[in-house]
What does this fold into?
Amino acid sequence: MSLLVKKVLGIGTAVIVVGVLIGLYVASWATSFPETVAASGSATTTGVSTRLTLQTVAAVGAKYSPAHPDWVSYLVQSHGKWIHSTDYKVPANSDVQITVLQYDGDSGLRNPFLSQVQGTVGATETIDGKTVNAINPEEASHTFAVPEMGILVPLPGVAEEAKDQCEFAPCTMAEAHRTITFTIHTHNKGRYHWQCFVPCAAGFLTGGGGPMQTLGYMDGYLEVV
Amino acid sequence: MAEPNHARRFTVLWVVASLIATPLVIVLLGPILPPGNGSQQASGHVTDNTVLLAMATPVLLLVVIYLIYAIIVFRQPKGGVLEGPAVRGNQRLQTWWIVVTSILVVSLAVYGTVRLEEDGAGSGGGPSPVVVPSGKKLKVQVIAQQWEFTYRFPEYGGVEVPHLELPVNQLVELHVTSLDVIHSFWAYQLGVKADANPNVDNVVYVKPTHEQTFEVRCAELCGIWHGAMFDHGHVVSQEAFNTWIAEQQTKYAAATKALPPYSKTYLPEPTRRAE
It folds into this structure.
């Protein structure tokens, strides 16, 4: 085998190896989605109900997001543990009761129109035990909105002067929070995106970058199955 | 054998083909050209696209027929390796080419300007559009935000709604703006596309001509859920619109109370966190 052929074979092999490694890295990155968390089902007096418990935190912490520990985020409860995922699975044609433990302070809505509850059962939400159909737009911390399903739930923030504010997730019930509950009724199967409408990304231009633009923090999917 | 007059042969071929193809394009393709006839402005787009296509057809044929003619007539004979004659400039041809293409381009520019001035052509005219169609107008504000369009009706108590309905045969004055980044309001079947910029009132006129469902999209890459800024709007009868808007006023009464007074633009405080 001539030297030239050996050189060509060597270079060709190296190119193929590097190409395969790059391909594996890209494939791994492109297929790495957050864990999908299924809502839990339980029997109630009115029939089978599905529950989803979420937590919103001002800073997700290094435990859940080493790359972005100070980003605002949603967490979801699964088998008693808090998981950093924004991909939730719920059954079709069902009532789903969603509880949000809201640990973050207010940022205010840019569009006050989004301060009215839309698309939930009864077009209301319950905040710390009180049922309302709208909140003060200035007090909004986040929203849980599924535009394609017509669902919009504004979430009020924790008062600035509240004691025992949670610094990093996961936050505990002992720390200052608001408890928001609402029920949505799902219809057709599908994958619907949900998002926060409050520009809540601290440190980013007009609050719209970082966690607002990255899947897995302030937005995700509601998989109706 | 004497060399035939290629210029004459080619010209005859081209003229005949153009005379056949251009009317066919107008008659057969014209009616199916986008965006359809959902509004006066959309119909105008169809007419404009038909004119452009009709003008482009002879140009296309000129290129294609010459290509085919050259391949067939000027092909190299088998076995022969011939060097063609050196080609120098042809002043007459160049002059004709410049004159004809200039006429085409200038006439298109004039045509486009005239058409734009007729009814605004469904495009944003900025805060003070040069062209203002006459007649009673229904004002609707289009508010873009990441990632949803909402619509405010100043003549109906300033109510804001998440979906758009418009009355048929009613001239509508859309005021397009944004609360955050640059979006673009695109109502395809209505022939409307207007940039939505923060703190800018971009006015566009449209007159839907029949009851229909139309698509609303954002036509400016605006973030992770840009593709989700999609909805269906409806053009309905005046009676159905009256009923619908009254229902919306009741349904969104709580939100309407929280809204600031109607304004042509809004400059919302940036999030307190981002400061």
